[in-house]
Design goal:
253 residues, six-stranded antiparallel β-sheet, 6 strands, elongated
Length: 253
């Protein structure tokens, strides 16, 4: 009853494990994109949307994030907020082409630096400087809608970060979602402003028409009042000319 031979089969499962890890990462990335889309869908204005976009830094384990919007037609970049700052502040302006974000707008490509102190494109803004000091890696992503660049989103990491192809694709997808959402909000705000302006114009025109109607009524009243007496006199003398004494005809005329 004892075995005479033992057969051992070994199978290399490294490739299988790697495939499983890739699938898990892809599932996580898809879930991340869904959550971001659902979060931004509820925001109607840029003021509501910006804090939500900045807070997404936590999904990427980033210590810092900032959001810049392109100002038309000057091309200047307006920094409207950053994380971990909790509230939006008056926009800080960078001239077109200035800093890392200006370089991203000019090239239309993402930019990464691992040395903020010596990077030729980095511009330290006074109010934000303390938040950048502990960072080792800064990633800047162009935000676009179709072929139009609408802004730049940056992520800062406390440690040196190198990103694989899957992570790069995730950042590109996130940037596309942000760009589309911001463009939609901007268009809605523009339409709202246009609607308010048009409504104001219509209200002014309506008020002008009302005033003209009042003037018309006043004119008709005045003309009617001023003409009533002389017309009555004319009718009276015309009747006298027809029926009155012939001797007074010259007087009637």
């Amino acid at each position: 009853g004892l075995p005479q031979q033992i057969l051992v089969t070994l199978r290399d499962v490294t490739a299988q494990k790697q495939t499983e890890l890739i699938l898990q990462q892809q599932a996580f990335h898809l879930q991340t994109l869904v959550e971001i889309s659902q979060t931004l869908r509820a925001a109607a204005t840029i003021a509501d949307m910006a804090p939500l976009i900045l807070a997404q830094a936590t999904l990427f384990a980033a210590a810092y994030s900032s959001l810049f919007l392109v100002e038309n037609p000057s091309g200047d970049l307006l920094m409207i907020g950053y994380y971990p700052q909790t509230e939006l502040f008056p926009p800080m302006r960078l001239a077109a082409g200035q800093g890392v974000v200006g370089h991203v707008i000019q090239t239309g490509k993402s930019y990464i630096t691992h040395d903020l102190a010596t990077d030729p494109y980095v511009v330290i803004m006074p109010d934000v400087g303390p938040s950048l000091k502990p960072l080792h890696t800064l990633l800047a992503l162009p935000l676009r809608f179709a072929d139009q660049l609408v802004g730049v989103y940056t992520l800062g990491f406390a440690e040196k970060r190198l990103f694989n192809e899957e992570e790069g694709q995730l950042f590109e997808a996130v940037a596309e979602i942000f760009g589309t959402a911001l463009h939609r909000a901007k268009m809605m705000e523009t339409w709202d402003q246009d609607l308010k302006a048009r409504t104001a114009e219509l209200a002014a025109a309506n008020e002008s028409l009302r005033e003209l109607d009042l003037l018309k009524s006043k004119f008709i009243h005045d003309v009617s009042h001023e003409l009533r007496t002389p017309i009555s006199n004319l009718r009276l003398y015309a009747d006298l000319l027809e029926r009155g004494s012939v001797l007074k005809r010259t007087h009637y005329q």
